[in-house]
Amino acid sequence: MESHFTINKSPVEIENTNLKESMLAENISWADLLDQTIKRNHGYLNICHEALDNHSQEDMNNKTAIKFIGKSWPENNTDIKNISYGELLYQTKMLMNGLLRLGLAKGDVLFSLSPRKPESYLVALASLRAGIVFSPLFSVFGPEPIAARMIKGNAKALFTLASFYHKKIAPIRKSLNQLTYLIIFDDDGSAKNIPNYIDFKTLLNIHLEKNDRIDLIKTSADDLALLHFTSGTTGNPKGAMHVHSSVVYHQLSGKWALNFKKDDIFWCTADPGWVTGTSYGIISPLCNGVTLIIDEAEFNAKRWYEILEKFKVTSWYSAPTAMRMLMKAGEELPKEFDFSSVQFAASVGEPLNPEVIWWVKKNLGISLHDNWWQTETGGIMISNFSVMAIKPGSMGKPLPGIEIELVKLNDTLLEKIMEPDIEGQIAIKAGWPSMFRGYLGEDERYLKCFKDGWYLTGDLAKKDEQGYFWFVGRADDVIKSSGHLIGPFEVESVLMEHPAVLEAAVIGKPDLIAGELVKGFAVLKKNYTPTDALRLDIMSFARIHLGVSIAPKEISFVDNLPKTKSGKIMRRLLKARELGLPEGDLSMLETT
Ligand code: AMP
């Protein structure tokens, strides 16, 4: 299992690290660390305060916090916006006052549905500062996944663009009973057709008398801060709840696993609609005082190389799918660029193939450090650190203060695997500050994730003799496509809404670029003939309702679906058959 070729670090790289190898074994009392931070703040803890205010004391007012690269760059060289730490704090406070004036209060949930625009970063910070729970949605979601999340999350406010409203919200607005405040920005002239909306600019420019201005809502460490939706195998998406104490971990894990230094120009390519885009695309880099690059445009290999070179990115956090797309663009293109500014690079979200690591090393001269975590963990748990040799194909070692074991569940017993190279489920000792505190409205589902004080992640891995973890797979049927978790149930429910579909099942089918693609199987109702035209119609129906990132890329018609004796679809079996793999244990298969 162990890779023969580890990437060893030069003495300069090892010198230039925030983390010494001895720290990995150190015991950290999270409770003490939290206490110290709370004491420094005279009793409260607020993510936005940690991200922005601490710096004003250090005279960072003029330093660029966010460098925003607009879509028309580089053709239009002026499409770049620099927002300093001072300006960001000022605007965040203005917006926070606007949100509170509007009637929003601590504990209310604000959803944001926005592409990468400066306003979406501002609203995240302002909500956190106001104690409003911030819940980001992925901007390419279609109306159905948006409705499922907003209804479950009791959305009180939604922040979105006028164009998005018409396409994605208007069809579902009636079902959003709790939605009181619809905040619209980026009006393309169509906002006038939206009933009862609040203009973002008006909100930002509420000029209050000094005495009326609120500086900060003093949240406590255990107050709810973020609601991140994630997918499971069954049922609707789960709302993972995170509290303000997470920020202590966001700050430290960024320093350790992403090697943040004050002078860093950091580019996290993840969309803020996902947990990586929030924890490490907003909070952690700002807490560490670095300059954050945000690119509005979609992936383009040449553009990405230009950004790395032109803006002298020093620290880069991306994902395997993106790296595979760079590979696809060929070996000639990177030769035109200079990547020498990049001192540290990391990848997350899905397995990072060793050949990708070698390709990036050879063609960009950059060492990719894989790391592992989940929506539920709130922050990076396992990582290849700057200080240690990279073993391509391995996720690395646990962060300081994070205790991880591989386990097997034997009925009610949790058995720890002590020998190396044996597969088991990744379990994390509960109690780190960014651990999720529940699935909204689903206590039982939450409690089921824990056993004897260990959080069971649902991921299978092996550990080698040197303590490096190697990803094996998921213990369940969720699909990972381009780094995004997709719950089969959500897709199947929409397929079944098509008038021709009687039953449906979806699986993740291996794909060279996206890791997995969603493949659907449909049983048709009587009187429907399985034609290509019908297949296309079902696929386009799914795209309209789910959005392109979730909708199946392939659909096969089948006469029936394999089910267990209790009636559950055996997706595992569908997958094995699709891929020509052994069918495994069929004792549960219903035979009719
Ligand atoms: P999410 O909650 O959407 O961030 O997805 C978390 C899941 O992504 C994990 O449980 C893993 O299955 C997968 N994942 C994240 N990082 C890695 C990695 N470095 N290698 C393999 N799988 C990963």
Short descriptors:
592 residues; 6-stranded antiparallel β-sheet; globular; binds adenosine monophosphate
Structure description:
With 592 residues, the chain is α/β, with parallel strands linked by helices. Helix content is 29%, strand content 24%. The chain has a domain at 477-579: GMP Synthetase, Chain A, domain 3 (2-Layer Sandwich), CATH 3.30.300. It contains 17 helices and 27 strands. The strands form 6 sheets. A 9-stranded mixed β-sheet has the order 2-1-11-10-12-13-14-15-16. Strand 21 (454-463) and strand 22 (469-474) form a beta hairpin. It is globular and about 70 Å long. Bound molecules: adenosine monophosphate (AMP). The site of adenosine monophosphate has 19 residues, from strand 14, strand 21 and strand 22.
Compact summary:
The chain has 592 residues and is an alpha/beta fold. Strand 13, helix 13 (354-364) and strand 14 (368-372) form a beta-alpha-beta unit.
CATH third-level topology of the domain at 477-579: GMP Synthetase, Chain A, domain 3
What is the share of helical residues? 25-40%
- The CATH superfamily of the domain at 477-579 is identified as ANL, C-terminal domain
Strand content: 15-25%
Q: How many E strands?
A: 27
With helices defined by DSSP (H or I, 4 residues minimum), what is the helix count?
17
Distance between the termini: 42 Å
Q: What is the name of the CATH architecture of the domain at 477-579?
A: 2-Layer Sandwich
Radius of gyration: 24 Å
